[in-house]
Amino acid sequence: MVISWPLAMGLTALIRRGYADEVRLVEVGPRDGLQNLTQQVPTATKVELVERLAATGLRTIEAASLVSARWVPQMSDGSQVLEQLSPREGVRYAVLAPNAKGSREALRLGAREVVLIAAASESFSKRNTNCTVAEGLERVRAARQLLVESGPKRPRVRAVLSCAIACPYDGPIAAARVAEIAGQLLDMGCDEVGLADTVGTGTPKAWAAVLGELRAVAGPDVLTNRLAAHCHDTYGQALASIYECLNQGLRVFDASVAGLGGCPYAPGALGNVATEDLVHMLHGEGMKTGVDLDRLVDVGDFITKQINVSNCSRVGKAILAKRQRSCP
């Protein structure tokens, strides 16, 4: 059996041989990071969080969600958040829109990126979006069609596939099934597909299996050009899994400042991988993110104090502690 040499070498060797060393981070803190909170975060605080994140060098920020206030009360002011954000050159403010109704509102608001959702698990799909997996895919298809037909300046369309590793109700999901559904999303013409480890049980081996199946289904270039990984850190495996994804060729990763997050429909799922921790690791490996880590740590400190929750970024807490120990 012949093994492709990029898969057999470490990340450092890949970079030395000229492989792309730029990584794009998708900051999901303002949406995925806040959606599970019971106390309502003021709209002004959400807007300030997004704008502070943009000032760190992050170029894609999931700023809001256009979902039913009945199901996700925290996101009820999504339209107001988007209306109040100041445009910033080179920054895309993404918005989650689970259906055609949300997509129309995103178009009205001038969103530059719209995030659609599907699931690899029947049970999760029914609880999260009240439809089967097949019906969810048709919703994505219809919403994408609406968005791409909106004109030459149509928003970028990103689809996120929940339960790409396991489901909180159905358990582990077969890698071949995940690849099949992700392949359908790619075939629809979604600009990017994010693979979400919704419950955070993923390990490097599990991620390698999914990406291997996807490589077989969609070809080797798809990993670098059209896929992203969204790792929750419930079991402490997010950074290790992302390192494996890097070695496999992925160059887009979701993360949440201060490790905020959790899914209302995934009991026990904790926050996303902390953006600070991910940036620290990537910079240590010689990757370029365009993000100022010190400024990012400031943002994590700001938002956790504003909403009175623990800062779950180990890097953020270490840098803040080091600052306090330093003499003037």
Number of strands: 10
The CA-CA distance between the termini, in Å, is: 61 Å
The ordered H/E elements are HHEHHEHEHEHHEEEHEHHEHEHHH
Rg over CA atoms: 19 Å
CATH class: Alpha Beta
**What profile does the largest beta sheet have?**
8 strands, parallel, barrel
Structural class: alpha/beta
Q: Which percent bin holds the helix content?
A: 40-55%
CATH topology: TIM Barrel
Work out the strand percent.
5-15%
The coarse overall form would be globular
The H-level CATH homologous superfamily, spelled out, is: Aldolase class I
Mean pLDDT: 90
* Quaternary state of the chains: single chain
Supply the number of structural domains.
1
| Assigned CATH architecture | Alpha-Beta Barrel
Description:
With 328 residues, the chain is of the alpha/beta class. It has a single domain, classed as Aldolase class I (TIM Barrel, Alpha-Beta Barrel). It has 15 helices and 10 strands. It has helices at 5-8, 11-16, 29-33, 43-54, 78-84, 100-108, 122-129, 133-148, 175-188, 204-218, 221-225, 238-248, 275-284, 293-307, 314-325; strands at 24-27, 60-65, 92-96, 113-119, 156-162, 166-167, 171-172, 192-197, 227-231, 252-255. Strands 1-2-3-4-5-8-9-10 form an 8-stranded parallel barrel, surrounded by 7 helices.
State the main characteristics.
alpha/beta; metal ion binding; TIM Barrel; hydroxymethylglutaryl-CoA lyase activity; 328 residues; metal-binding; single chain; signal; 45% helix; 8-stranded parallel barrel
